[in-house]
Amino acid sequence: MQIRPQVSEYNSYYATYTNLVSDGNIIHILEQQMKETNLLLKEISNSEGLFRYAPTKWSIKEVIGHIADTERIMAYRLLSIARGETAELPGYNDDMYVLRAAFDKQSMQDLLENLIVVRQSTLYLLRSLDKEAWSQRGNANNSEVTVRALAYIIAGHELHHLQIIKERYLGSDVYPAT
């Protein structure tokens, strides 16, 4: 699917994410993104994964867990809408999810494996969709959204957080030296 979603296909809040995604086949973009994310994060040690650039901010491990949780939720929305769900799909509290997940107790390897498995599952789902499914509309978190938009939101959400990891975590003057 190479057609970018129109702004009418998602809540304007998500433009922050969709605007980060390059033009091209979204499935190929998500495949490449998975490789680049793994390359960036695989060398971070468990202790470095606990780094926070400010006391009230998530650790690197928590950011990785949040990316995976959000992709799972967006993929569920995508699946539901693609299959014709008419019920409103609920929002979620990402801070509560991170707090209850105890990502800091998990290894970096486990968190990365989880992220890769979630992405692989998303990719299998996207590859299974027929042309008509991509333009299906549904309601998630009190906003209309299309399947196509959700695929771009998934990609853009990860790009957003990877940019933060690079700039505020790995690029921090106080990031632990290896």
Automatic annotation (TrEMBL):
Residues 30-165 form the DinB-like domain. Transmembrane segments: none annotated. InterPro entries: DinB-like, DinB/YfiT-like. It comes from the Bacteria. It holds the Pfam family DinB_2. This is DinB family protein. The lineage of its organism: Bacteria, Bacillati, Bacillota, Bacilli, Bacillales.
